[in-house]
Each structure stands twice: as structure tokens, then as C-alpha cells.
Design goal:
Layout: E1 4-5, H1 24-31, E2 35-39, E3 42-45, H2 47-66, E4 70-71, E5 77-79, H3 81-86, H4 88-91, E6 97-100, E7 106-109, H5 114-124, E8 133-142, E9 157-167, H6 170-191, E10 196-199, E11 210-216, E12 222-227, E13 233-235, E14 256-259, H7 265-276, E15 287-294, E16 297-304, H8 311-318, E17 323-325, H9 328-333, E18 353-356, E19 365-372, E20 375-381, E21 390-391, E22 410-425, H10 427-432, E23 435-437, E24 443-445, E25 447-454, H11 455-466, E26 483-487, H12 491-506, E27 511-514, H13 521-531, E28 535-539, E29 547-552, E30 558-562, H14 566-571
Parallel strand pairs: 1-27, 4-8, 16-18, 18-21, 26-27, 26-28
Antiparallel strand pairs: 2-3, 5-7, 6-7, 8-9, 9-25, 10-11, 11-22, 12-13, 12-22, 14-20, 15-16, 15-17, 19-20, 22-25, 23-24, 28-29, 29-30
Helix pairs in contact: 1-11, 2-6, 2-11
The protein binds adenosine-5'-triphosphate and magnesium ion (MG).
Length: 573
């Protein structure tokens, strides 16, 4: 290959941060000329961006091919019918990009392709002898994300590698899952991504077992827990809190009703109780009671006062029921619910289903609303004074909470999801009647898995985890070029740099050479640091002694090296 020359490369670096960029990887990918914004969450890849996405995709493809998965390529533009058949046309809500063709038929830009792969296999395969099979694609996906703020980390158009496994039985599906898990471990190691494998809930996919590959970073939108003692790790959305066993010996005084005026919110109520009623209580001993509607029926959710309700977890706990807020109009229609003072007391009689966090354990006592204006009750006991219909883990998890496996304190950290593996089971095979004809002539319902990696997101994650204050710092495995040669001065430096670039390319090393006559040395150095190739070679003053400077962008190390030794040195690395 010929070296790439900065003098003609389609690249303009920016000195200033783009106004809309909130995370470092986004700022740097824009400033270094890898991507340009077209619209919120929609980006153009420039030459450097194309190269790095290609390199990341190549590693992913190699590891998929190595486990015997075969590559196909679906369109992004798809008819609505298959997605209507599984219900996801509606379930996806605002996330789905829907459109109509000229005849008024419904289409979508696919957010993921389970339906299509199921139909594809159904169309081609018939016998049990055809299975198992694994298929994948590297393809553009569309999701109308609510907050596309982190550049290609969360795009509305983005590239995903999605693969799907089809097996005759559960053992086969477990094997396909394990193969993908191993392939993902190898992939993320080769990509140089720092990751954790955590238990996950499978959300809109509707499966059973699922794990996420999370890349820890302070800018992450996911939160995960790790146990300080055992190897438990989970997305906070998937932490199952155990329902404590009732203490049969605990006795509580009878419930009392207290006057609590001017106490809006948990904090003010704690103050009133401690000041006016001689109590010594805190938010964790008060109940937060929130009304929702699930499919238009009132549902009350109870969590300790020091916690919030995680509405996504609530949504998955009551799925397929749909959760909406209990609004002013709903309160107006139910004068028996005293806004600000609602509680679970008497709710069953009022036709309300009471859901509670497991911490609201049987026989535990609480301060809660009295269903009476400006009044609360104390020593309201679960099972004695009010009833919990169902326990659901819907309260937010806090740092230091006990591990569900061993009880030791857990830590919270932030991360970005780079990969996700699901055991789908027979949900999609059931929806489309995907069967194989068995040896005995009877149909066998196929069981499936689906496995995703965010390809463009992975690029942003690597940038996020490896950058420093000067710019990007790509691991050699994905860098657009292995070596960035800077010709510091004029003609003789440029000539030597170009010759070295040719020699390195001939030795199989990819080279970007800064041969610009229009840029000062200082600008070139800054650009080299910003663009982030792992090795920088400076052809400058030392050239008169036959020397160049070798800079390691990852470690910051600098060495003077004989020009004649460079090819042997970098060609073998
Ligand atoms: P998130 O929770 O971050 O929105 P998700 O759970 O919705 O992601 P999946 O449906 O599991 O995502 O998709 C598989 C993979 O695709 C994810 O692990 C992630 O790497 C990538 N991905 C998902 N949404 C986006 C996006 N908007 N932009 C870029 N990559 C994405
Ligand atoms: Mg996911």
C-alpha cells in the first residue's frame, strides 16, 4: 500500500471543541476529523473514521467466523408486518423509526433484526439435519433515541453486529450462547476495551438469560453493581433484591394517626415527626407510595423513603401491562385518594393493586400516609395494617447495598454497554412457527439466541477509555495507521519522511505521513497527538546525524533512533 499523505488527505482538524459535545470521546472524534455531525445522533464518517470502523468490524467478523457464524446482510428498510406479528411494532414506542411508502404501506428502519432472521431461516431450512445454525450481519440500525448526546456512542443511526443462533434444544442453545460469550471475550480483548460481564434483563427482546458487556467509564449511561466479596456483577436494572423473611417475634405497637401539616416531601415530614412528635426517624423508615396506572387500572408502588422508583424496572415487572402516570385528572376522578397523603391502607378495598419493594418486608413497620389530608400514621405494619399484593424489585439500588448472593456491600459504577447476549428461547420461533421436522416425523420448535455488539459505539468507547488530555490514543489493534511520521521542517525532512513512509509500507506497516508544507512543526506535533496513532516518528533536526525521534503515544516514551534502524524496529513489532 502507499502511505497516506496529510498534504492531500481529506482532513481538517479543529482547534475548538464542538458546542454540542458533552463527552470527551465525542469532542475528540470531531476535533480530530473522524466524524462530522449531520443531525442529532446522525454522523458522517470521514476517511479516518471509515478506517477505524473497518478495523473494529474486521476483528468482530474474525471472531464471529471463528465460531462458525456465517455473514449475511439484511436491508435496514423493512416492511412492518413481521414486527406487527411479534408486537414489537407497537412495543418499541417512540424508539422505532416508522415510515410509509408511496402506496401508504407501513415500513420501518430496523432497530434490530430478530424477526427477519427467524423468517429467513424458516424459509431456507426444514429438517432437523439442517440445525444448528448461526448467522450474523454488520449492518446499520436505526433507533430514535431520546437523548442522542454522545456522538457515535449513542447514535440514532449506528452500526451493529447482530448475530442469531438457531438450535433444536435448550442444551444446543446454551452451547451457542457460550460460544458467543467466548467470542465476545476475545473480541473485546483484541479491541483493547476494558469491560465487565454483568447479569442483565432482556427488555424488549423478551428472553430469559442475558448478559451485558459493559465498558466502565464515568460518562456511561448504565449503572452496574459489583460485589466487594463474591463475583456477583449485574446491571442495576437486573439486581434482584431478596424478600426478607418476617421476624415472627417482632411485635409492634398499635398504629397511631398523627397530625403532620406543612410537611411536603419526605425530608420535611421527617423533620416534622422528629420535632413535633418526639420521634427519632429517618427517610429509610418512611414509605414512599406512588400511584401509577397499569393498563388504566390504579396500581400503588411502595418503596422506602430514601429510594426512588426505577420506572424501567417497574415497566418490565408489570409487562406486558403498560405503565402510565397517575395524573391530576386521575386524582380528580378519585376523591378518595388524598393527594400527598395516599398510602396502602385500605387500598385493596379501593380496587388498587399494591406492589412493594422487597425491603417493605412482611411484619415490618412504617410511617406512611393516612389517606387523610395533613395526616400520617406511624407503626403501620405490613400484613397487619395493610397488605402487599406482590413484591417487585423496583427501587433504585444504592452504593453499599447488600449483594443478593452473599450479603456483602456492593459498589456502583457507571458504564457503557458495548455488547449484549440473550437467550431468546422460543419467543420468535413461536411467533412465526419456526419448526424443524424431527427424525420421528414430528415438528421440533426451534430455540434461539441473539447477540449484539455496537460497532460504531465500540469506536467511541475505545476513544473514551484510552484518550488523554492531548487527544486520542488508539491501541495498535484498531488504530487507523500504525505509524504517524511527522516531517518537522522543510524539503529535506519531507523527502526523508516520505522515503521512510514508503519503506515502512513495504514492510507491511500502515503509515500516515505529515508532509504538509503549509503547517508549522508545532501544529503537526499537536495534530499527531490529537489523531492518536500509537507510534509517532519525528523527522527533524536529528536527521543531519541520521537520527529520528520515536515517540510512543501510549506511554509518552521518546527515543532517538537511527533512521536506518526504524524499519527493522517497527516492521517487526
Ligand atoms: P442501550 O441500553 O445503551 O440503549 P440497548 O440495550 O438498547 O443499548 P441492544 O438492543 O442490546 O442495545 O443492542 C445491542 C448493542 O448495540 C448494544 O450492546 C450497543 O453496543 C449497541 N447500541 C445500542 N443502541 C445504540 C445506539 N443508539 N448507538 C450506538 N450503539 C448502540
Ligand atoms: Mg442491551
Amino acid at each position: 500500500m502507499l502511505p497516506t499523505r496529510m498534504s492531500t488527505m481529506f482532513l481538517r482538524t479543529l482547534r475548538d471543541d464542538p458546542a454540542d459535545a458533552e463527552v470527551p470521546s465525542h469532542r475528540l472524534l470531531v476535533r480530530a476529523g473522524y466524524v462530522r455531525r449531520v443531525a442529532p445522533g446522525i454522523y458522517t464518517l470521514l476517511p479516518l473514521g471509515v478506517k477505524i470502523v473497518e478495523r473494529v468490524a474486521t476483528i468482530i467478523r474474525e471472531e464471529m467466523n471463528a465460531i462458525g457464524s456465517q455473514e449475511v446482510l439484511f436491508p435496514a428498510l423493512l416492511p412492518a408486518a413481521p414486527y406487527q406479528q411479534t408486537g414489537r411494532w407497537d412495543e418499541y414506542g417512540d424508539l422505532l423509526m416508522r415510515l410509509k411508502d408511496r402506496r401508504g404501506n407501513d415500513y420501518l428502519l430496523a432497530p434490530t433484526h430478530e424477526e427477519m432472521f427467524t423468517l429467513l431461516v424458516k424459509g431456507e431450512y426444514a429438517s432437523y439435519r439442517d440445525y444448528p445454525v448461526m448467522l450474523y450481519q454488520v449492518q446499520t440500525k436505526y433507533r430514535d433515541e431520546a437523548r442522542p448526546r454522545s456522538g457515535i456512542m449513542r447514535g440514532r443511526e449506528f452500526v451493529m453486529k447482530d448475530s442469531y443462533s438457531f438450535d433444536l434444544d435448550d442444551a444446543g442453545q446454551q452451547h451457542s450462547y457460550d460460544l458467543h460469550r467466548q467470542a465476545y471475550i476475545k473480541t473485546f480483548e483484541r479491541l483493547g476495551i476494558d469491560y465487565r460481564i454483568v447479569a442483565a434483563i432482556s427488555g424488549a427482546m423478551g428472553g430469559s438469560q442475558s448478559e451485558e458487556f459493559l465498558a466502565p467509564t464515568p460518562v456511561g449511561e448504565d449503572t452496574f453493581v459489583t460485589c466487594s466479596n463474591c463475583d456477583y456483577a449485574a446491571n442495576v436494572e437486573a439486581v434482584e433484591v431478596r424478600v426478607e423473611q418476617p421476624d415472627p417475634d417482632a411485635t409492634h405497637p398499635p398504629m397511631r394517626n398523627l397530625h403532620t401539616p406543612d410537611s411536603p416531601g419526605i425530608g420535611a415530614l421527617v423533620e416534622t415527626l422528629n420535632r413535633d412528635h418526639g420521634m427519632d426517624t429517618d427517610a429509610s423508615k418512611l414509605l414512599k407510595n406512588i400511584l401509577f396506572k397499569v393498563d388504566a387500572k390504579p396500581v400503588m408502588v411502595l418503596v422506602p423513603g430514601d429510594r426512588e422508583i426505577d420506572e424501567e424496572r417497574l415497566a418490565s415487572a408489570v409487562a406486558p401491562g403498560e405503565v402510565t402516570a397517575f395524573d391530576e385528572a386521575d386524582f380528580a376522578a378519585r376523591p378518595d385518594f388524598v393527594k400527598g397523603y395516599v398510602s396502602a391502607l385500605g387500598m385493596q378495598e379501593a380496587g388498587v393493586i399494591v406492589l412493594a419493594d422487597p425491603r417493605v418486608a412482611p411484619n415490618s413497620n412504617w410511617v406512611t400516609g393516612a389517606n387523610e389530608y395533613e395526616h400520617h400514621v406511624v407503626d403501620a405494619v405490613v400484613g397487619r395494617d395493610f397488605v402487599v399484593d406482590r413484591y417487585v424489585s423496583v427501587a433504585t439500588i444504592a452504593d453499599g447495598d447488600p449483594c443478593p448472593r452473599c450479603g456483602s456491600p456492593m459498589h456502583l459504577d457507571r458504564a457503557v454497554e458495548v455488547g449484549h447476549i440473550f437467550q431468546l428461547g422460543r419467543k420468535y420461533a413461536d411467533a412465526f412457527g419456526l419448526d424443524a421436522l424431527g427424525a420421528d416425523g414430528k415438528p421440533i420448535r426451534i430455540t434461539m439466541g441473539s447477540y449484539g455488539i455496537g460497532v460504531t459505539r465500540a469506536v467511541a468507547v475505545i476513544a473514551e477509555q484510552t484518550h488523554d488530555e492531548l487527544g486520542l490514543r488508539w491501541p495498535a489493534s484498531v488504530a487507523p495507521f500504525q505509524v504517524h511520521i511527522v516531517a518537522a521542517g522543510k524539503a529535506d525532512h519531507i523527502a526523508a519522511a516520505l522515503q521512510l513512509a514508503d519503506e515502512l509500507e513495504a514492510a507491511g506497516v500502515s503509515v500516515l505521513v505529515d508532509d504538509r508544507t503549509t503547517a508549522q512543526a508545532g501544529v503537526k506535533f499537536k495534530d499527531a497527538e490529537l489523531l492518536g496513532m500509537p507510534t509517532i516518528v519525528v523527522v527533524g533536526r536529528g536527521l543531519v546525524e541520521g537520527k529520528v525521534e520515536l515517540r510512543n503515544r501510549l506511554t509518552g516514551e521518546r527515543n532517538d533512533v537511527l533512521l536506518t534502524e526504524i524499519v527493522a524496529l517497527l516492521g517487526s513489532s
